[in-house]
Design brief:
Length: 614
């Protein structure tokens, strides 16, 4: 939630900051702003409601001089999205500017205390309280900016990643973090700050991930310094990024979402590369082999995640139970963290997160670790907070996901969970060699099978025209594909704003069947698997009540073709890998309906890609 960028160097800061904001826009896009320290040490702050493109228009005639600056793209938490609540916020002298990602939980108390000292506030934000507090401490103690920032952060309860500049110290930029990500890019005579590495990558591949409670002191012509909250120097661990600029661009597609859907043959190839031996005998997940005993002796697995990652977790439950014969619970991280869960050191907690920054998932991990459980992460973003907070884990390696609706990350997560189940099943000897080879073959075939499934794109585009203006959708699935129904419904509602519900197909008759009429289309996920016969009767129940049915079926399924209104044929695959294939037509259906409705699929309203607040 919210993206921040900072630059200090010799180049004009504005262009770098705005370009960085475009890269971070997936984190929030209801307002944006920039603060520049000009060459004559004046602070120019420009901010406006709307997207980064609106900020660029707003700045067209403005003085954007300066080689030091900070910038922000916002996802509103405190205060509505408007020009005043947009970041950067400035202290009352107009000299200090600050951008912030996170929430200051005790901002009311701090605000009241500052008001008693004569401070007045322009915005409704928690962030303005922080910048005023910094300025108040600086004036009262006559101290440097970094000392004032450190003093203010000691008073703060909550989560933050901040970047601060001050015209009194025009060659300094301060960054700090607690529970919200902040990356420092180290270039030749220039330093960058950003919420993730995407604004930095084209200037340098050398980065430092700031840890909680650390403060970065960035000064012109001086090496980077990092101190902890007690002002003791902290280690500077420089990492090399493995990411390319082309991964962050649309590559000829009209939207990131479509690019990411079409990338899946390659991303799944990257995800399984070097992990499923060609003999099929072995699944190599170093996170498992290095902690073999933990996996062999685990009594239970608890999966924690949010949103789409939670849906992947539900599929993971089936996989782990069936293949590795281990009891699994799947929890929303946001509920789990407040549920006083019973966890023991014999439990394995699997945290799934594309961004690796989701606040609830991170809090669930911290709780699990306190209870002594072994925590295994399944993340996409390398070096993210969750990746670093877990004992071990597996990256899904699908590359940066920019579209706000998760697509390739979901299929990557499910693929990793399949490999994980296979690795643990092999360790525990809970599956036969024959089944192992069969599943390994199916995993290796996924890229080709996804390519074949993507050929449905044109027919789905046509089909979407029929359903563009419906108000509700029902998605039904069973077994492995009940979570696929949930995920299909989530994709549709988040990008097209059409209400959609996912349901286990057999549960329909216990309530939702009352909704069915000729105005409610139902998407039924009905591949040729163990549940096939049963799901045919579910389709008949819908048809008998005048509902229309779009069925996702295995190629050659003539029975369903006769009863459903439309069929989307996918290749034949073993049941346990079918959710990966099934998700492709569901992603395309949501995409095309949303496009026909004129929705912004890459930046749907009210959403942000990385949910770093509660
Ligand atoms: C939906 C979507 C969200 C995320 C959720 C968790 O398309 O992207 O539901 O899945 O916010 O995010 P991560 O996986 O980053 O923890």
């Amino acid at each position: 939630m919210c993206g921040i960028v900072g630059y200090l160097g010799d180049k004009p800061a504005y262009e770098i900051l705005v370009k960085g904001l475009h890269r971070l826009e997936y984190r929030g896009y209801d307002s944006s702003g920039v603060a520049l320290v000009s060459s004559d040490s004046k602070l120019n702050v420009y901010k406006t409601r709307g997207k980064v493109a609106d900020l660029e228009r707003f700045c067209e005639e403005k003085d954007v001089d300066g080689t030091i600056g900070i910038a922000h793209t916002r996802w509103a938490t405190h205060g509505e999205p408007n020009d005043i609540n947009a970041h950067p916020h400035v202290g009352r002298s107009g000299n200090i500017a600050l951008v912030h990602n996170g929430t200051i939980e005790n901002y009311h108390v701090l605000k009241e205390a500052l008001e008693l000292e004569g401070c007045t506030f322009k915005s409704e934000t928690d962030t303005e309280v922080l910048v005023q507090l910094i300025e108040y401490i600086k004036e009262k103690n006559n101290c440097s900016l970094v000392d004032a920032v450190r003093g203010a952060l000691k008073e703060v309860v909550g989560a933050y990643a901040i970047a601060v500049v001050d015209t009194d110290e025009p060659d300094t930029m301060i960054g700090a973090r607690k529970s919200s990500p902040l990356v420092i890019g180290i270039g030749e005579g220039e330093t960058f700050l950003a919420s993730d590495a995407t604004p930095i990558i084209e200037y340098t591949d050398k980065v430092v991930y700031l840890n909680d409670d650390e403060i970065a002191i960035i000064r012109k012509n001086e090496p980077l310094q990092i101190v902890n909250s007690d002002n003791m120097p902290a280690a500077i661990d420089i990492k090399t990024l493995r990411m390319s600029v082309s991964q962050l661009e649309k590559g000829g597609y009209p939207h990131f979402m479509l690019k990411e859907i079409f990338e899946q043959p390659r991303t799944i190839h990257d995800c399984i590369r070097g992990r499923v031996a060609s003999s099929g005998d072995e699944v190599l997940l170093s996170g498992v082999t290095e902690h073999k005993e933990r996996f062999l002796n685990a009594h239970r697995v608890v999966i924690v995640a949010c949103g789409t990652s939670w849906h992947a977790g539900l599929i993971g439950k089936r996989l782990l139970q069936e293949i590795a014969r281990i009891p699994v619970e799947v929890e929303y991280a946001s509920e789990f963290r407040y549920s006083n869960p019973v966890l023991t050191p014999d439990d394995i907690v699997i945290a799934i997160s594309q961004s690796g920054e989701t606040a609830d998932t991170l809090a669930a991990i911290q709780m699990a670790r306190k209870c002594g459980a072994f925590v295994y992460g399944i993340c996409n973003v390398i070096g993210s907070s969750i990746a670093r907070a877990t004992d071990s884990g597996t990256y899904i390696h699908v590359g940066p996901e920019i579209g706000v609706a998760s697509t390739k990350a979901f299929t990557g997560q499910v693929t990793v969970l399949t490999m994980l189940a296979l690795a643990i099943g092999t360790l525990k000897n809970t599956i036969s060699k024959e089944t192992r080879l069969q599943i390994a073959d199916a995993i290796r075939a996924l890229p080709t099978l996804i390519s074949q499934t993507l050929k449905l794109n044109d027919s789905i585009e046509k089909l979407s025209g029929i359903y563009t203006y419906v108000h509700n959708f029902l998605y039904l699935g069973r077994g492995y594909n009940y979570p696929s129904a949930l995920e299909g419904a989530l994709k549709l509602k988040e990008i097209s704003y059409i209400h959609a519900e996912g349901y286990p197909a057999a549960e329909m008759k216990h309530g939702p069947i009352a909704l069915i009429d000729h105005e409610l289309p139902t998407v039924v996920i009905a591949p040729d698997d163990e549940m096939h016969e049963k799901i045919i009767s579910n389709i008949q129940q819908v048809k008998a009540r005048g509902g229309s049915v779009i069925a996702v079926v295995t190629k050659g399924d003539t029975t369903i073709k006769e009863i459903a209104d439309h069929v989307l044929e996918i290749p034949k695959v073993p049941e346990c890998v079918s959710p990966v294939i099934v998700s492709v037509p569901l992603q395309l259906l949501a995409y095309h309906i949303a496009i026909k409705k004129g929705c912004n699929v890459d930046m749907p309203r009210n959403l942000a890609k990385s949910v770093t607040v509660e």
